[in-house]
Specification:
alpha+beta, 292 residues, Nuclear Transport Factor 2, Chain: A, 3 domains, single chain, five-stranded mixed β-sheet, 5 helices, disordered N terminus
């Protein structure tokens, strides 16, 4: 081969090689960008909830349209039920601000302040399959004034930590609920707390075990009972654990959602929403309030 031909061939090969390297580099960059764009399930849940206020249509795509099971008994099943709620929005729309959002396997759980047919606070649980939302549970309550210790229903700690302790923290909460609240072992309550160091966000109860004791005494005087019959689900991420239970409050069939913050193996902070379960003949779906 003549020298000039050899140079031409080499130039073509070098150009092709450089082009291939550039293409490979661009493909890798594209893959990295796609990975960065992929939201976590809890980010998707937050985006969907806050789209009630923003009107952003993108988060609707996070729902599997062929399989969306609704456990809010006031909402029809599937996307049609979700759409019906949106059609009945007030003139100035809904408001939604997610305060805390967590993830446990295929489940997410969020703590949100709403203006949803009036000021409310809520816990929402979503179940995902293949990155799509396929099921939803929630508990809602009216927004109230600060409690005897000056705390609101949503303020307090938000920092997620102790991810390596998720399993043990969930076990602690499950044991507390079943031992103390379901089976009535109130004499063992102190085992789950660091003395009286306990921050309470229930609108009727003050801080510490002393505040809880005082509230229970007042309830007893007024003939108000609170009974936990069954713990349906315990979800957690790091130092935050949400438990969903069924029972009775003031004689009414009730759903209890309790969010706990765990610190050094003890319950350090508590938020809750207590919602009476509507009579079955008023339900807009047949999926039940629990059925995890």
């Amino acid at each position: 081969m003549k020298p000039i031909v050899t140079l031409i061939v080499l130039a073509v090969l070098v150009t092709a090689c450089n082009s291939k390297q550039k293409e490979t580099k661009e493909e890798k960059q594209s893959e990295i960008m796609e990975t960065k764009k992929e939201l976590s399930n809890k980010e998707k849940a937050t985006a969907l909830l806050e789209s009630l206020e923003t009107g952003d249509q993108t988060p609707i795509s996070y729902i599997n349209p062929n399989k969306y099971i609704q456990h809010n008994l006031s909402v029809g099943d599937g996307l049609a039920g979700f759409g019906e709620v949106m059609k009945n929005a007030p003139e100035d729309g809904f408001k939604a601000k997610v305060v805390r959002s967590f993830e446990d396997g295929d489940y997410t759980f969020s703590h949100t302040i709403y203006d949803f047919f009036g000021p409310k606070v809520g816990f929402d649980i979503f179940r995902f399959e293949d990155g799509k939302i396929v099921e939803h549970w929630d508990n809602l309550a009216e927004l109230t004034q600060v409690n005897p210790s000056g705390h609101t229903q949503t303020d307090g700690a938000e920092e997620l930590k102790d991810l390596d302790k998720t399993k043990s923290n969930k076990a602690l909460v499950d044991d507390f609920l079943n031992t103390v609240l379901v089976n009535g072992g109130f004499d063992k309550m102190a085992n789950y707390f660091d003395g009286d160091n306990y921050i309470q966000h229930n609108s009727m109860i003050g801080d510490g075990l002393s505040g809880l004791g005082k509230a229970l005494e007042e309830m007893a005087k007024n003939g108000v009972t609170m009974v936990y019959n069954k713990v349906h689900k315990v979800l957690g991420e790091g130092n935050f654990v949400l438990a969903v239970s069924e029972g009775k409050f003031a004689g009414k069939h009730t759903s209890f959602y309790d969010l706990f913050r765990i610190e050094n193996g003890k319950i350090a902070e508590h938020w809750d929403i207590i919602e009476a379960i509507a009579p079955e003949d008023t339900w807009k779906n047949t999926n039940g309030k629990f059925d995890f």
